[in-house]
Structures are given as structure tokens and as C-alpha cells.
Amino acid sequence: MAGVIDDYVAALRRDLDFDPPLARRLADEVEAHLWDAAEADPSGPSPEAQQRAVARFGLAREIAAQFAADAIDRQAKRTWMMLAATVAVTFIAMRLRVLWLDDFGASMSALAPLIDRYAFIAALAVGVIGWFVCRRSLAPLAICLGGLAASIAAGIARAGLFADGAPLHVLLAAAGEIALIGLLSWHVFGLHRRLRRTAMLRNAQ
Amino acid sequence: MLKGHLDAIVLAALEAGPAHGYAIIESIKRGSASTFDLPEGTVYPALHRLEEAGLLSSAWMTPPGGRRRRLYSLTKAGSAALADRRKAWSRFSQAVDTLLDEDRPWPA
């Protein structure tokens, strides 16, 4: 039969499932802590002593919610850094495409250059405002992601990059922006999951 | 109110040397004469936050015949941060003492 401490550690591990390495590490730390506390109890490590040790430790969900809140800050920071890198590489790729297109005069669509330019500018503006106003919010990041994805797609369509045999440096820049937009999507999705998990843990308290 | 100072208290608890979570909590309870009887689990998010910030380092240790525990130590940056927080707290507490002094009520 599982003891009080085992049950508590299992609950904590479940509540920390948003970060499996942290859940494993903390489960081991907390288990050692609770046994130390139970053994220090005047009655010895009895089920009652285990119960008291668990009660003094606090609710598993409260502890997990604090970790989740800290994880949001770290995830938000990483996501903003990824956004900055994506903006920089998209800008460089855009300039390289424009230089190449000027050489060849190969604009395929009237709409694509407008989307390429203004979706990028809109994403940049939302990103700058979001950074100063609501850094932990998902909305500016999601809008920037959409704007940059539209700009990149329009830029590639505009240049007909992969059909017309563009120079290697233009293709590499385009591949770089596609890779970064993929990574940025993954980070934004990760932040969304952590925000949702933290809200769930807080509401369950 | 304690929550805002927990990081500094944890850093101070580790000044004497490396310790694991349970020992840190016991040290805080003893050092504060049980005034700070916070839920013991709240120290772990603080420890991880301080480690992420580079103010603490940690490693698993298993004493002979004992239980495996994670020991936390102050880094150089942690010692410097503790010194800064001590200075800030000293200024803050002196200002509050002055304002709350019964012999010299504020505002004058």
C-alpha cells in the first residue's frame, strides 16, 4: 500500500507534467525532504508523522503553480528572443530578395510585394509595442508570428524562389527564415500551453 | 510580505555553506525563532529560480548509508547578490524604523 509521502510525491509529479525533467528532479528532492521531516517527528516516521510532514510542505498544486509561473517568465523570454532573431533574419532575407529581384525584374504578383513589406512592418510594430506594454501576453507574439509568416510566404511567392533557380545566398536566407518561423511557432505554442497550465493549477487551488 | 524577501533569506541561509532544501527550511525557522513558519514547499521554487539566475549551484550528493539529496551552494554571483540585498534591506528597514518610531511620530 502506498504511503502518504508516496501519494503526495505522485500528485506533485502529475501537477508538474508540463516540465518532465523538473518533475523527476523535484519528486526526488521532495521525497527526501518529506522523509527527513517525518523521521524528525517525535513519533518517528509513522503515517501520522508523514501526514504532518506533507501538511507542513503545502499543497502540491500550489507548489506546481509557483513553478509554472516561473516557467512562464523563462518561456516568454525565450520566445521574445526567438521573435527578435526571426525579425532580423526575415529582414535580411527580404533585402536579399529585393536586390536579386531588382537584378532580374521578376515580380510575379502585384499583391505579394505589398504583403511582403507591410505584414513585416505590422509585425515589427506590434512586436515593439508588445515588448514594452505586455511582455507576458500571448497576443502580440501570435500577431507577430502571423505577420512574419504572411510576409515570408508572400516574399517567397513574389520571388518564385524555388522555381526560378535563385542564387544560393538568397535561398539560404529564405531557408533560414522558414526554419526560424517554425521555431518561433513552437515557442509561441509552448508559451500558450504554459499559460493555460498555470491558469488551471491556480483555478484548482 | 515575506514572499518578496524569500530569495534573499534563502541566499542568507546558504551563506554558512551548502545545504539541501530541508536543512535550509530548518535554518530559516531556527534563525527567525519560528517567526517565518512558511509552507516548506515554497522554498523549492525559490531555490530553482535562484539557480536559474546563476546565484546558486546544485548537485546530488549521497552520504555513506544516507539518503540522496540535492545540495545547493552560493555562487560568486550569489554572494554578491546577497551583499547587495543586505545593503538594500538595511536602507529600507532603517527608513521604516524611522517612520514607525513611537517617540518621533511621522509626519512630524
Care to describe what's here?
The complex is a heterodimer of chains A (about 200) and B (about 110). By secondary structure, chain A is mainly alpha-helical. Chain A folds into two domains: about 5-60, no CATH class; about 70-205, no CATH class. Helix content of chain A is about 85%, strand content about 0%. Chain A is built from seven helices and no strands. The two termini of chain A are about 25 Å apart. Chain B has about 110 residues and is mostly helical. Chain B has one domain (about 5-100): Winged helix-like DNA-binding domain superfamily/Winged helix DNA-binding domain (Arc Repressor Mutant, subunit A). Chain B is about 50% helix and about 10% strand. In chain B, strands 1-2 form a two-stranded antiparallel ribbon. Chain B starts with 5 loop residues before the first helix and ends in an 8-residue tail after the last helix. The mean pLDDT of chain B is about 90. Classes of the chains: A mainly alpha (about 200), B mainly alpha (about 110). The interface of A and B includes residues 26, 30, 33, 35 and 66 of A.
Summarize the structure.
With 205 residues, chain A is an all-alpha fold. Chain A is built from 7 helices and no strands.
Low-confidence stretches of chain B: none
How does the overall form of chain B come out from the CA principal axes? elongated
Physical arrangement of strands within the biggest beta sheet of chain B: 1-2
Please give the radius of gyration of chain B in angstroms: 17 Å
Record field, number of beta strands of chain B? 2
Helix/strand-derived category of chain B reads mainly alpha
Helical coverage of chain B, percent range? 40-55%
* CATH homology group of chain B: Winged helix-like DNA-binding domain superfamily/Winged helix DNA-binding domain
Largest sheet of chain B, if any? 2 strands, antiparallel
Rg result of chain A: 25 Å
The number of helical segments of chain B is 4
- Total tally of structural domains of chain A: 2
- Give helix and strand order of chain A, one letter per element, not per position: HHHHHHH
- How many structural domains in the coordinates of chain B? 1
Main beta-sheet annotation of chain A: none
CATH architecture of chain B: Orthogonal Bundle
The helix content of chain A is: over 70%
Strand content of chain B: 5-15%
Structural class of chain A: mainly alpha
Largest interface: A-B, 21 and 17 residues
